[in-house]
Amino acid sequence: MVLSMTAVHRHPVGRWLIWSLFFVGSLLPLGWITLQAVQQKLGADPAQVIVTFLGIWALRYLWVTLAVTPLRRLFGMGWLQRYRRMLGLYALFYASLHLLAVATFILGWRPDLLLRELTERPYIIVGFTAWVLLLPLGITSTQGWQRRLGKRWKTLHWLIYPIALLVLLHFAWLIRAGYLEVLIYTLILAFLLGYRLYLKGR
Amino acid sequence: MLIRKAPDIAPSEITPESIYRQRRQFIKGLAAGSALLMSGPAAALSGSAREDEGLRATGPEWLQKKLEAATASTEFSTAEKLTPFEHVTSYNNFYEFGLGKSDPKAYAQGLRTDPWSVEVSGAVHKPGRYHLEDLLKGVDLEERIYRLRCVEAWSMVIPWVGFPLASLLKRFEPTGSSRYVAFTTLHDPEQMPGQRSRFGTIDWPYVEGLRMDEAMHPLTILAVGVYGSALPSQNGAPLRLVVPWKYGFKSIKSIVRIHLAEQMPPTSWNRTAPQEYGFYANVNPAVDHPRWSQSTERRLPSSLFSPNIIDTQPFNGYSEQVAHLYSGMDLNKWY
């Protein structure tokens, strides 16, 4: 007999196990890149490798968070809902590390460079804006805040859609040649957002 | 286009291994000795830089001999700290082999660089298809330690081995009407996986060009080696251009055609994104790339917690030698 995830979730041990799996599993990318950096396996420009890696994982976690609703509705994976907050917080986690890595490894916290990048580079302004908007969503992701904000909580968290579009723009704006990767993420996001429009219009 | 014959027999396989080794040892000694005498810029030809012998590209025997006879150019070389061989040969932009920096090293190893021929055409009295070996006959190689500034705002210091492009062009006797030199990289999707991709933005083959006075400038060289050995494929074997005062993409790799032209030739990056990449592409901290700043650069290899950020110099620090070529030109317009 196949043990369904729904069945696993009926048991507290099952719930704890899956939670731990999500939690620890989500730290694996960070663990991997840290190990590579410590072992000096990232080549001539480890800074760029780390920054790109953290950025792409932030994007992936954002996309996965947005995939929870469609997966729930299309495949009856209701149990996933329980982990949406964690996934969203990991998106914020990797986005914050991405930002820290840029400031530390690429710009060396030089005030003139930080100011220049934040005021003159459109793709950085767009990416930074996405992070600034994501921050309050992370802070208000607890049940306490959900209660306190009531109806306004949903309005605030609707921001995740423009944030995703900003992130995509930030990513696409960086490309010098070769659009395959960005094309794939665009198609996935188009589906994730399109599905919501479809649900709304029905 | 390419004359394909004689498969991949490395000269090291023809020469008995033991004799080959002895010869390398002997040369090592010589190189180390001469380095002591000359000191300074001969560093790359010296024994210490040859630690990773096993990773070196060997190249055909005739080329090895020429490389071993190369002299260090003190006049044109910088004394800055060299970017290690390992990084110079594993961190490359060579989109014919993929978009990632490590792709060229991973996918270029099968490139057949010997035999190799170059077509010389256009406004010259002696056009024709020349074997690389013939092109290099009578040419003395020299080591030039140049800064390389990528348009992506990172830079390296690389000991190339090559010869002035001017000396080669003169042999073909350009006619009075030749005003530009156009270069073409090998187009062979079978050998170059990047040329098979349908999602790239570059129209193959890769093309580049120089104005005649830029091409004839003594700093402009054609390189056949790096760090005292033959060029590895990922660095543009067997023949590449090096123009140190321009962004790296001007220094076209794996050249199969040199064409003397009367009109300004098209260049790949300019064709792909004309608002971002001009024909001249001189290193210029005052003119930003539309998407990022060019006022600073990170000298590689960079250490994580103290990124090697340095101010980018006009003409990549070669102003004294080349600024006069552009006097009277608006460099904001002719970027």
UniProtKB/TrEMBL annotation, chain A:
Cofactor note: Binds 1 heme b (iron(II)-protoporphyrin IX) group per subunit. Binds 1 FMN per subunit.
Stretches that traverse the bilayer: 16-35, 47-68, 89-109, 121-139, 159-176, 182-199
Pfam families per record: Ferric_reduct
Chief subcellular location: membrane
Sequence ranges assigned to domain Ferric oxidoreductase in this UniProt record: 54-167
Swiss-Prot/TrEMBL cofactor(s): heme b; FMN
InterPro entries in the record: Fe3_Rdtase_TM_dom, MsrQ-like
Keyword tags: Cell membrane, Electron transport, Flavoprotein, FMN, Heme, Iron, Membrane, Metal-binding, Transmembrane, Transmembrane helix, Transport
Compartments (UniProt record): Cell membrane; Membrane
Membrane topology per record: Multi-pass membrane protein
Similarity section: Belongs to the MsrQ family.
Purpose of the protein: Part of the MsrPQ system that repairs oxidized periplasmic proteins containing methionine sulfoxide residues (Met-O), using respiratory chain electrons. Thus protects these proteins from oxidative-stress damage caused by reactive species of oxygen and chlorine generated by the host defense mechanisms. MsrPQ is essential for the maintenance of envelope integrity under bleach stress, rescuing a wide series of structurally unrelated periplasmic proteins from methionine oxidation.
Subunit field text: Heterodimer of a catalytic subunit (MsrP) and a heme-binding subunit (MsrQ).
Protein name: Protein-methionine-sulfoxide reductase heme-binding subunit MsrQ
Originating organism: Marinobacterium sediminicola
Organism phylogeny: Bacteria, Pseudomonadati, Pseudomonadota, Gammaproteobacteria, Oceanospirillales
From TrEMBL, chain B:
UniProt keyword list: Metal-binding, Molybdenum, Oxidoreductase, Signal
Keyword Oxidoreductase carried by entry: yes
Residues noted as binding Mo-molybdopterin in the record, renumbered to the chain: 92, 95-96, 150, 185, 235, 240, 251-253
Function of the molecule: Part of the MsrPQ system that repairs oxidized periplasmic proteins containing methionine sulfoxide residues (Met-O), using respiratory chain electrons. Thus protects these proteins from oxidative-stress damage caused by reactive species of oxygen and chlorine generated by the host defense mechanisms. MsrPQ is essential for the maintenance of envelope integrity under bleach stress, rescuing a wide series of structurally unrelated periplasmic proteins from methionine oxidation.
Source domain of life: Bacteria
Cofactor(s) needed for function: Mo-molybdopterin
Oxidoreductase molybdopterin-binding domain segment(s): 112-269
EC number(s) recorded for this UniProt protein: 1.8.5.-
Catalytic activity: L-methionyl-[protein] + a quinone + H2O = L-methionyl-(S)-S-oxide-[protein] + a quinol; L-methionyl-[protein] + a quinone + H2O = L-methionyl-(R)-S-oxide-[protein] + a quinol
Name of this chain's protein: Protein-methionine-sulfoxide reductase catalytic subunit MsrP
Similarity comment: Belongs to the MsrP family.
Gene: msrP
Quaternary structure and interacting proteins, as annotated: Heterodimer of a catalytic subunit (MsrP) and a heme-binding subunit (MsrQ).
Modification after translation, per record: Predicted to be exported by the Tat system. The position of the signal peptide cleavage has not been experimentally proven.
Cofactor note: Binds 1 Mo-molybdopterin (Mo-MPT) cofactor per subunit.
Family matches, as SUPFAM superfamilies: Oxidoreductase molybdopterin-binding domain (SSF56524)
